[in-house]
Amino acid sequence: MGKILLVSLILFPSLAYGFMSDDEIAVLQQTSAGWSVGERIAFWAEQFIDTSYDPEPQGEYVKRKVIIADERVDCMYHAFRSIELALGKDPTDSLDIALEKRFHGKGVLQDGKVKNYDDRFRYGEDMIESGKWGREITSELGELFTIRGERGRDRVSIIRKGDIPKMLGSLRNGDIIFFVKDPAKRVAGEIVGHIGIIKIEEEKVYLISAFGQKNKGGRVKKTILSDYSTEMPFIGIRVSRLE
């Protein structure tokens, strides 16, 4: 897969900047069609490395009422788009997948604009529990710890921050990591405070995600998950997997 990525960067220089044309997307979707779902998700997550963080509080894609806004991304959009591109057989198919997956119900596109972003997923925990973003595998990875829930949930089970190094060997390419906030630090009833995608390379487990703050900027980075877990401001994780 590394050689394919290198050739792709030579053929399509725009990949180095985290966005590309539909023609470029189509070629890479055809090239990666035979890979596992997880490998494709990790591959597409990696294409956004160094892309600038989206400073718009609700997300530029929501403000503009569009599906595609690849020039700047936050962690939720990065997860959305990486998975949609991985699952789609071509750019149009990925757009259709976005209309199905980004919403509690289904997105409505009219004259190129999304008409019902008020029905979108705003909370990472809602993404997990919808089943649209894979099967939750948290309980399969390690010992669970229970914390206070929110918005109709009594309790929520997580893997604690200190236990993350113990479960690294059970992770796979493309797993979606939902980082859980300390209940005392919740601002708007959110349980999940950050989202990232796993990439395994040379027996090392990496996290690819849009790291930043709405008022300070940032970018998409690839970092060793165990290193990030020791310094992250979250108390634990939940994990889902598309198979």
Give keywords.
single chain; 243 residues; alpha+beta; Putative xylanase fold; putative xylanase like fold; 2 domains; two-stranded parallel ribbon; 9 helices; 32% helix; 24% strand; globular; disordered N terminus
Topology, element by element:
Elements (H helix, E strand, L loop, with lengths): L1 H10 L10 H10 L5 H11 L4 E2 L6 H4 L8 E2 L1 H13 L3 H11 L7 E2 L2 E2 L9 H7 L4 E2 L1 H4 L3 E4 L6 E6 L15 E5 L11 E10 L2 E10 L3 E8 H7 L4 E6 L2
Parallel strand pairs: 1-2
Antiparallel strand pairs: 3-4, 5-12, 6-7, 7-12, 8-9, 8-12, 9-10, 10-11
Helix pairs in contact: 3-5, 5-6
Task: Describe this entry's structure for a reader.
This protein has helices at 2-11, 22-31, 37-47, 60-63, 75-87, 91-101, 124-130, 138-141, 225-231; strands spanning 52-53, 72-73, 109-110, 113-114, 135-136, 145-148, 155-160, 176-180, 192-201, 204-213, 217-224, 236-241. The protein is α+β, with helices and mostly antiparallel strands and 243 residues long. It has two domains: 2-119, Putative xylanase like domain (Putative xylanase fold); 135-241, Roll (putative xylanase like fold). Strands 5, 6, 7, 8, 9, 10, 11 and 12 form an eight-stranded antiparallel sheet that branches. A hairpin with a 6-residue loop joins strand 6 (145-148) and strand 7 (155-160). Helix 3 packs across helix 5 (75-87) and helix 5 crosses helix 6 (91-101). Residues 2-18 have low confidence and may be disordered.
